[in-house]
Design goal:
Helix content is 45%, strand content 13%. It is built from nine helices and five strands. Helix 1 crosses helix 4.
């Protein structure tokens, strides 16, 4: 398979590994001693996946996510792409629609006191993950950290993504080498407007409780 490899190795304003030395430094630190691309990918993916998932804006830079140490699916994917590209591994963004786990988000809404605000997100939601080139394109979804996944399972939920399909049963994926335009447009359509920071903080406290549940034996 031939493709424009260089397009999947470039920085951008949001994928800012060229202007943020810390991104490449962290990637090199994680992959020290790795002998091949597969091993380097696995180390970087494991690091980004285990950063806690939390609600935030869609258009943050990769360096912002690394500095904060947590992120939403878009932010964590952007950081993953940036770190992979910084060590010469081609990566791209994959955007698609998923159906929310209504029972799970209902419980989260009750715990956080933000049930009404979470309903504003609707049943179908945008999701962003990564595809990495390892001889072929491999899907890598760093969105949920392991503690969150375990908490979901303990509540009887599922960690499988329920992808929205068209009338022929086909999933519609948007694959991007540059994420910035999509992220900024999506941010302009942000569901939460007034009091966004307070809403995010309340929901994220609920997610922390979910992670605590996941950590209990």
């Amino acid at each position: 398979m031939t493709f424009n490899r260089g397009a999947y190795l470039q920085p951008s304003e949001l994928c800012d590994f060229d202007s943020s030395l810390r991104i490449k430094q962290k990637a090199l630190e994680l992959t020290r001693g790795c002998r091949n691309r597969q091993a380097r990918f696995e180390k970087i993916f494991a690091f980004v996946k285990e950063l806690p998932y939390g609600f935030e804006d869609w258009d943050l830079t990769a360096s912002d996510v690394l500095k904060k140490g947590w992120g939403m699916c878009s932010g964590k994917t952007n950081l993953l792409v940036a770190m992979l590209r910084s060590v010469g591994i081609p990566a791209r963004y994959r955007v698609y629609r998923i159906r929310a786990d209504s029972a799970l988000w209902g419980r989260l809404g009750n715990v956080s006191g933000q049930a009404g605000r979470l309903e504003e997100l609707g049943e179908e939601r945008d999701h962003v993950d990564c595809e990495v080139w390892l001889g072929k394109w491999i899907v890598a979804d760093p969105g949920r950290d392991s503690a969150m996944e375990k908490g979901i399972l303990k509540l009887g939920g599922t960690i499988e993504r329920h992808v929205v399909t068209d009338e022929k049963g086909r999933a519609i994926y948007l694959r991007l080498s540059v994420f910035d335009g999509w992220a900024r447009q999506r941010q302009s359509l942000r569901a939460f407007r007034g009091g966004r920071a307070d809403v995010f903080a309340a929901i994220n406290r609920g997610l922390d409780q979910l992670r605590e549940l996941g950590r209990t034996t």
